[in-house]
């Protein structure tokens, strides 16, 4: 995203729509006299005599008693350092520019190779003593309309503090001629004797939605071939549709009006297979289960059953291990066998992927834990109860692994995007949304239209799984570009590493995987005919 914060031409729109800071060129003001008037610069000198005894009438904002402190704000802006965005605080109360060792460790690998020794081993603040381990020079780029302002301050690295971001003290404020103006349009100026650049401050904090979005955008994937103007137009659309993204303490949405309802083809009393006990658990497995339970519990995906609630159906779950990593598996096999099927059609991947092969721009978006954003009807929650050593829990959101989840979610998406799919620029496969076009102007418009549909129904998109404006990407198990449709070699290599199937149970998933790529294999039916015969019950493997 480093290109997205660079300058733009004079013909562009108001830069406040695009940037965190605004530039304007103005003549240097010469300060000669004391004038107690609002907005007029004041000369500060010990030689001046007090000429007035009445109360000051220069307030721009009259504070409420006991609330004056809310009008004070840090001078904080977002700058570019080493092709990444970082906070810069203009600190008029500190004589040296500084950064903490902790912040460098978290954001700048191998920063210690750039460290210079310093004679001063400690610095004093108003209330404590801070230890220095040296100094470091970092190139700081402040974005503005007519070209970036490039600063190269030497910062003291503090060892025993945990400050976030870079702090510019009065040392480099004097060297660069940085002046702070606390008038109505609060800003700073950076300049020489002939001219100054005014930078209007826009507050960015951890609670600021725009700040969160800009920080979260670093998790998304953006095409490296996009021009600066293309990135800016995309950023504007993403900022406009911020509510569509999973950002904040409660990132998981809940789709309105589409709760799933399950129907069983068996009446009470339910068969024993629907009342299964928990699997045996080792101490290591119990620790993993506790971690897996706490996350959906905090996200309101499950709730714990009270001691006075009647429990008729229970599903156990287990932890599987592979290469030292654990995975939660819900054993809904018995419940699925007794659930009436939802026959809603799911698109064929081959048809969907063929449409993408000729597109110049492709964007892929993914719903954050898509199934878990779908509610469950109250009378169906009692069917979705899992148990372990911690007790019995009930799904209040649609879980992964139940029989009708994919068909139900596909139906929701088709209801949300009927025109977009018919117009031929969107492919929806369950919780994957793919947008494609031949021109960038159409592409940005399509992304805007798609994102605007998510907010009304409270469906959230995961930026970490989004890929914007690509000319080539992995989608629906294929490597798609404007020139070709190829097989994802990562999936092929994973199969090649497995051993040769030794029985029907191992052969069936292999044949299913091969069939997924049948369009890429000549005379596929002839080659696999013998394999299909081996999957028959009448043939000895």
Characteristic key phrases:
five-stranded mixed β-sheet, 541 residues, 26 strands, disordered N terminus, alpha+beta
Mean model confidence by pLDDT: 76
Order of neighbouring strands in the sheet with most strands: 14-23-18-22-21
| Oligomer classification | single chain
Largest sheet properties: 5 strands, mixed
What overall form do the CA principal axes indicate? globular
**SS-based class:** alpha+beta
Distance between the termini: 55 Å
Poorly predicted segments: 1-42, 50-58, 200-208
Helix tally? 14
Relative helix content: 25-40%
DSSP strand tally: 26
Give an account of the 3D structure:
The protein is of the alpha+beta class and 541 residues long. The chain is built from 14 helices and 26 strands. It has helices at 101-107, 170-176, 209-217, 228-240, 283-298, 333-337, 349-356, 378-381, 405-416, 418-422, 440-457, 489-496, 504-516, 524-534; strands spanning 22-26, 76-81, 84-90, 98-100, 122-124, 129-137, 140-142, 149-151, 154-158, 166-168, 178-181, 187-191, 196-200, 221-222, 302-304, 315-322, 325-330, 361-366, 385-388, 391-395, 426-429, 432-437, 467-470, 472-475, 478-481, 485-487. It has a 5-stranded mixed β-sheet, sandwiched between helices. The chain has a 5-stranded mixed β-sheet with strand order 15-20-19-16-17, with helices on one face. Helix 4 packs parallel to helix 11 and helix 13 (504-516) packs antiparallel against helix 14. It is globular and about 85 Å long.
């Amino acid at each position: 995203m480093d290109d997205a914060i660079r300058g733009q031409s004079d013909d562009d729109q108001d830069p406040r729509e695009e940037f965190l800071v605004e530039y304007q060129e103005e003549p240097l003001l010469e300060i000669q006299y004391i004038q107690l008037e609002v907005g007029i610069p004041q000369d500060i000198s010990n030689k001046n005599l007090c000429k007035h005894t009445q109360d000051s009438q220069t307030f721009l904002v009259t504070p409420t008693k006991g609330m004056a402190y809310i009008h004070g704000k840090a001078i904080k802006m977002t700058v570019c350092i080493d092709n990444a965005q970082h906070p810069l605080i203009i600190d008029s109360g500190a004589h040296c520019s500084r950064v903490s060792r902790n912040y460098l460790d978290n954001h700048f690998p191998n920063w210690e190779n750039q460290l210079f020794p310093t004679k001063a081993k400690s610095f004093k603040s108003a209330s404590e003593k801070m230890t220095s381990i040296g100094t470091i020079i970092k190139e700081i780029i402040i974005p503005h309309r007519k070209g970036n302002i490039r600063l190269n301050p030497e910062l003291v690295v503090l060892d025993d503090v945990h400050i976030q971001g870079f702090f510019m003290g009065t040392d480099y404020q004097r060297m660069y001629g940085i002046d702070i103006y606390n008038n109505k349009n609060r800003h700073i100026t950076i300049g020489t004797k002939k001219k100054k650049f005014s930078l209007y401050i826009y507050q960015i904090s951890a609670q600021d939605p725009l700040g969160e979005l800009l920080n979260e955008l670093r998790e998304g994937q953006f095409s490296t071939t996009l021009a600066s103007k293309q990135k800016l137009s995309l950023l504007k659309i993403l900022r406009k549709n911020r509510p569509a993204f999973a950002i904040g303490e409660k990132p998981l949405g809940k789709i309105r009006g589409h709760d799933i309802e399950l129907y069983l083809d068996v009446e009470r009393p339910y068969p024993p297979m629907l009342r299964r006990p928990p699997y045996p658990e080792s101490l290591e497995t119990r620790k993993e289960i506790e971690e897996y339970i706490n996350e959906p519990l905090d996200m309101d995906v499950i709730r714990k059953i009270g001691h006075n609630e009647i429990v008729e159906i229970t599903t156990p779950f287990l932890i599987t291990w592979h290469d030292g990593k654990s995975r939660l598996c819900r054993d809904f096999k018995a419940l699925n066998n007794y659930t009436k099927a939802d026959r809603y059609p799911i698109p064929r991947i081959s048809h969907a992927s063929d449409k993408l092969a000729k597109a110049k721009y492709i964007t892929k978006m993914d719903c954050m834990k898509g199934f878990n954003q779908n509610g469950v009807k109250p009378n169906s929650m009692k069917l979705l109860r899992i148990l372990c050593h911690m007790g019995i829990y009930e799904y209040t959101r649609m879980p992964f692994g139940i029989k009708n989840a994919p068909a139900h979610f596909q139906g929701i998406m088709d209801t949300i995007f009927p025109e977009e799919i018919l117009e031929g620029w969107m492919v929806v496969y369950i919780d994957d949304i793919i947008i494609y076009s031949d021109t960038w102007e159409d592409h940005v418009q399509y992304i805007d239209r798609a994102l605007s549909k998510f907010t009304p129904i409270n469906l959230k998109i995961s930026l970490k799984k989004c890929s914007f404006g690509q000319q080539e990407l992995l989608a629906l198990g294929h490597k798609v570009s404007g020139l070709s449709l190829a097989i994802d070699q990562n999936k092929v290599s994973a199969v090649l590493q497995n051993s040769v199937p030794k029985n029907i149970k191992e052969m069936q998933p292999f044949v299913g995987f091969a069939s997924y790529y049948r369009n890429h294999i000549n005379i596929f039916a002839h080659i696999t005919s013998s394999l299909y015969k081996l999957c028959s019950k009448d043939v000895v493997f």
